[in-house]
Automatic annotation (TrEMBL):
It holds the Pfam family Band_7. InterPro entries: Band_7, Band_7/SPFH_dom_sf, Prohibitin. Residues 24-189 form the Band domain. It is found in: Membrane. Keywords: Membrane, Transmembrane, Transmembrane helix. Its main location: membrane. SUPFAM superfamilies: Band 7/SPFH domain. Gene3D superfamilies: Band 7 domain (3.30.479.30). This is Peptidase. One of its GO terms (cellular component) is membrane. It is a single-pass membrane protein. It comes from the Bacteria. The chain crosses the membrane at residues 7-27. It comes from Arenibacter certesii.
């Protein structure tokens, strides 16, 4: 077997070194991610350039890249806060957020990869304590949940607006009151509902009674007007009109004119 040429060994060694360098230099960034470059001999974290984008990237082997997800993300948080009268309230919330892509280098340098625990969640907890402390348990349980959600979101945005984090929304999923307080509120709401129903029935009955009274008064007034307008001549005219109509009926046989009271006709011989 022939010996390898003297040049072959250095070539093989150089090839191995190149392969190692390429493998160390190649950085692949997935969809929805971005990379923060750290230059070992060039000032550390790069903050004055856009982060590395998706796909294949080459960096010097002595540098490093930290990859962040830059899509909208969701984190769930359970908090214990106090109402305006000092009662313990449990609040479950979903937080939608994403890092500010163009400020990713500063976020990495100043806050680090665990920025959610260092920046975002403390801001949410602080805002939740401040907002919930303005309301009573009754308000939290019934009509004010949407208002509380909006206020927590707005106050949290103010806290994180200069922290390189974009807060998209906060959804209050559940508000849990102490069991005794919840039962008391439910009893009170039930009593209020029953009271409203009773008042409604009472008003309806009063309106119906007023309607009947008005109808009766109208009939009485009509009868008075009719009685005042009747006299013998009108009654005779009415009788004559009725006689004419009856005479046209096939059942009428004999009509005696002027034989009844007040000279009204008498009808005889009906079949």
């Amino acid at each position: 077997m022939d010996k390898l040429p003297k040049i072959a060994l250095p070539v093989v060694f150089a090839f191995i070194v190149v392969v190692i360098l390429i493998s160390k230099s190649a950085v692949t960034i997935d969809s929805g991610q971005a990379g923060v470059l750290y230059r070992t001999f060039g000032g550390g974290v790069v903050t004055d350039e856009p982060p590395l984008g998706e796909g294949f990237n080459l960096v010097a082997p002595w540098n490093s890249v930290t990859i962040y997800e830059v899509r909208q993300q969701e984190v769930f948080e359970k908090m214990n806060v106090l109402s305006s009268n000092g009662l313990d309230i449990k609040l479950d919330a979903s937080i939608w957020f994403e890092p500010v892509r163009q400020e990713l280098g500063k976020l990495h340098q100043e806050k680090g990869e665990d920025y959610v625990q260092r920046v975002l969640l403390p801001a949410i907890r602080s805002a939740a304590r401040s907002v919930v402390g303005r309301y009573t348990p009754e308000q939290l349980y019934s009509s004010k949940r949407d208002a509380i959600q909006h206020e927590i979101f707005e106050e949290s945005k103010k806290i994180v607006q200069n922290q390189y984090v974009q807060l998209n929304d906060i959804l209050v999923r559940d508000v849990t009151l102490p069991a005794t307080i919840k039962e008391a509120i439910e009893r009170k709401l039930k009593q209020e509902q029953e009271s409203l129903e009773y008042e409604f029935r009472l008003v309806t009955a009063q309106k119906e009674a007023e309607k009947v009274r008005i109808e009766a008064q109208g009939k009485a007034d009509a009868n008075l007007i009719l009685s005042a307008s009747l006299n013998d001549r009108i009654l005779q005219d009415k009788g004559i009109d009725a006689t004419i109509k009856l005479s046209e009926s096939p059942n009428s046989k004999v009509i005696v004119i002027g034989s009844g009271e007040s000279g009204l006709p008498i009808i005889l011989g009906n079949q």
